[in-house]
Write a structure and sequence with these properties.
Oligomer: single chain
CATH architecture: Roll
Radius of gyration: 13 Å
Strand content: 25-35%
Number of helices: 3
Number of strands: 5
Largest sheet: 5 strands, antiparallel
Strand order of the largest sheet: 4-3-2-1-5
Number of domains: 1
Shape: globular
CATH topology: SH3 type barrels
């Protein structure tokens, strides 16, 4: 299911709250490719998106988490739902192999 939600601008949040929000460098943003994971944030929480397609400043992906406040009736998403976002929404970038290592370390 394709979901729509309002996402925070990572650059604006990093300027307003530098101790708790980070915005990636241009080099990190340019490294995003299908299979990468990007962290984004809505009004409630931060979550991971697995990148499926990158085109210009737009990213299409699938949610890699179910949000804590998620219900099937909510307009916001759950695990596997499709989502579109812009590069300025990205807080963190992880290559696919780093995400797999992170998940394996968590058990």
């Amino acid at each position: 299911m394709k979901r729509t939600m309002e996402l925070n601008d990572a650059c604006e949040m990093a300027k307003a709250h530098p101790k708790s929000f980070y915005a990636p460098t241009d080099k990190e943003l340019l490294s995003i490719k299908p299979g990468s994971y990007v962290k984004v944030s809505n009004r409630y929480e931060r979550f991971w998106v697995r990148v499926v397609e990158v085109g210009g400043h737009r990213i299409k992906g699938t949610m890699a988490n179910t949000l804590g406040h998620f219900t099937p009736e909510s307009p916001e998403g759950g695990f596997g739902d499709e989502i579109e976002l812009a590069l300025h929404h990205v807080y963190e970038v992880l290559p696919e192999e780093m995400m797999e290592a992170k998940r394996n370390a968590q058990g």
